[in-house]
Design brief:
With 116 residues, the chain is mainly α. It has a domain at 47-112. It is built from three helices and no strands. It has helices at 45-55, 58-79, 82-112. The longest helix is centred in the last third of the chain and has 31 residues, at 82-112. It is elongated and about 95 Å long. It starts with 44 loop residues before the first helix and ends with a helix. The chain crosses the membrane at residues 58-77, 89-112.
Length: 116
C-alpha cells in the first residue's frame, strides 16, 4: 500500500482563522470616492396612489369605467337583458382599450420628460 507523503522541506500552509466579516445592512457600503444620495422619505400607498393619479389621471378613470361596465353588464345578464348585457360588455372592451392606451401614453410621456 502506498501512503501519501509530502516532499521534504515543503510545509503545508497553515490556515489562520480570520474574524467573520459583519455587514451592516442599515448603512450603505463605504466606497472610496463615492457619496450615496440621501434616501427619500418612505411613501405609503395613499401618497403613491395620489401622486400617480396626478401624473396620469386617465388610468384610474379607465379602470373605474371598466369595472363599472363589467358590474353593470353582469347584473343585466343576470336579469336576463341579453341585449343590454352585450352592449355593456362591448363598453367594457372599449374602456379596457382606453385604459391600455392611457398607460402607454403615460409611460411614453414619463420616458420623454427631461430629467431634473
Amino acid at each position: 500500500m502506498a501512503t501519501a507523503t509530502t516532499p521534504v522541506g515543503q510545509d503545508q500552509p497553515t490556515k489562520t482563522a480570520s474574524p467573520p466579516v459583519v455587514f451592516d445592512l442599515s448603512q450603505p457600503p463605504v466606497i472610496e470616492g463615492f457619496t450615496p444620495l440621501p434616501r427619500a422619505r418612505e411613501e405609503n400607498f395613499k401618497d403613491k396612489f395620489i401622486r400617480k393619479t396626478k401624473e396620469n389621471p386617465f388610468v384610474p378613470i379607465g379602470c373605474l369605467g371598466t369595472a363599472g361596465a363589467l358590474i353593470y353588464g353582469l347584473s343585466a345578464f343576470r336579469r336576463g337583458k341579453t341585449r343590454q348585457s352585450q352592449l355593456l360588455m362591448r363598453a367594457r372592451i372599449f374602456a379596457q382599450g382606453f385604459t391600455v392606451v392611457a398607460i402607454i401614453v403615460g409611460v411614453a410621456a414619463t420616458a420623454l420628460k427631461p430629467k431634473q
